[in-house]
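Worked Example 4.2. Consider the chain below.
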Amino acid sequence: MRPADKSPESSNEFDITQLREILRDELIAILDTIRGSKALVLDKDLSGALSTIVDFGVLKDHGVEKIFLLDDGPLDTGTIKGVLYLTLPHIRKMKLIAEQVRASSQSGGVPKEYSLQLVPRRTLLCERVLEEEGVLGDITIGEYRMDFIPLEGDLLSLELPSTFKELYLDGDFSSIQHVARAIMRLQGLYGFFPRIVGKGDFAQVLADSLARMRLELVSGGTGGYSGGVLAMSTVFDSLVIIDRAVDMVTPLLTQLTYEGLISEVYGIINGSVTLGGVAALAPSTAGSVPAASTPGVSGSGASSSGDSQSAGKRRRIMLNDSDAIYREIRSMNFAGVGALLSKISRQLQDNYESRHRAKTVQEIRSFVGKLGGLQAEHQSLKSHVSLAESIMRRTQSDDFNAILEIEQSLVGGNDLTKEQLAYIEKMLALADPSANVPGVGGELREQPPVSIPNSIHKVLRVLCLYSLWRGPNFKQKTYDAWYEDVVAAFGHHQAITLDNLNRVGLLSSPSSTAQVIPSGPGESRASGLLNSVAPSTKPRNPVHANSIGFLRKALNLIVSDVRESNPDDASYVYSGYAPISVRLVQCLVRDPAVYPANPSGRYAALLRPLGDSSRVRPALADGQSTGGVKGGWAGWEDVLNELPGETVDASQSPGDGDSDVVVADAMVRRLGEKAPATLVVFLGGCTFTEIAALRLLSQQHGHRYIAATTQIINGNSFLDSFVQKSTTN
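Applying the procedure from the previous section yields the following structure tokens:
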């Protein structure tokens, strides 16, 4: 039995971080298959994620003497005989490995034993490439199932880059298989989810994949899982799947939580941030790292370059709940962070002053016992004060506020003013094609500038938002002018970028999206035939000319009286705008924010789908608490019609099949009232603001919403995979 195949949890108390132990044990088992000392060669895209699973001390205990990053050029492992490659299954990386194996054979040195572990699964294509390169017989090939990595107790990530582009532009659906296997591992631990709900074309594909895997498991097929029928989960009431195509707006907006702004300004990579050129910062408890060291992993083989003095000023800070101060402020709207840090500073000072009041030996001993914790808290406070000051300089700049006003005008349903349109023209005129973009292409080498560099990512975020929110009011003349300006400012190769964005619906040419609006809910658009056979980011059966305008009202996306310091609504993460993805979760759990129990006034009309006065969305029953999926999508059909993709709502029966739907639904209702958690899966990435909003719901509902995603993104990283890189490098 695989290490993941344990019996389902029988208690409602559970710790999702046990997945880290499973992943670590599986990696150790792979290391132990190679006898003696060994060199570990890591894919750059995996090194950071691996550091969250295992540290170098553990690797060293199991024979790893050197660590390298997979790159061009020969591999100098010296007298070490065993070489283990850990990499994603990409063709280019297979060719790099083949070159290194051939170079080692031709050098006539110590014979090597090569092992290749593909993450998260081995593919025939990779084996074919190695065979064509003539090295397949020299390498032992396996797979390392690095599934969901628990970054926090309520956050799981596959750390798969470019998933949204692969799905909607490249037509590569392999990431769906990766997500499905990761979810099946969770079901192996906690039992089957009683209900699966979701929205989006690939949400449906994922649900179908899970159903197929479950049938294979029940019928005795291997599929990498133990045989037999798993029990229904008493831990999770439901699996909610949100396809990123359903809400492409949220990643493009500027995140306004503390954690979100760190991501925007510095770039958070694998749960850490690297600070550069900040001499005032105190030494981190995480320790310093060289400028080009392997993220989170060190050793004699880790590459290091650059000026040593500059490297000494750069250091890596882990951002997770082990830092008590960060745990308290990470999800706060940045407007309230300064006041809280000031309060923490005063409390810390009072604790230090308590040493003067210690008179007896027992009181002195008590203070000495707390001293280590106070010093660690002091170092953490200095780091976060420095981070907050740097971010504040950015948020107080005219440039930041100009972008924010444009975003707020668009999400509020307003057209841009002449001044705002002029600002967009100014960005294009002052474009900087070589600007460093946080969260894209590695870590910042120096302190971030006060003003946001006019990179292509910054410009495209604004243009895509305009296209998505203006919808049918987006004029072809405006699109053509911006198209020419982008190509002129950033190079002719960016015409490919604009075509990519057009194809996935992020920056659509009005001429390519002009369609006839159907007169009734049962009719299809002109593109309905295409949508029926190909995944789309456009609404399947919309009734309204401007779908997002309807959703703004129906889902109460804009909250004018938002409370930023003591939030009571998910809209606080964008200072008045609630993410569509989170609102959909609130629809499922019947949260009063979108689903008042006693509708009146302007809400009453919204709660009668399609103007039918005989149909009102079902509200919470008397005495029923908010939290957990209550009744699926029933009553929200008009909202779902204005969103892209298929609608998923299925119950998993307790038997060998799904024939008894009545029994299945009854079990779902019974377990749903008791299960303490809901798993929310984001296909295509999620933002720190969406995670913060789910944490607020967890506090309000007394119910755990655990986010699982293919990757944590911001607007820059979301668009980066679509941006055509210069071929002159």
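The first helix runs from residue 18 to 32. The mean pLDDT is 81. Compare this with Example 4.1 before moving on.
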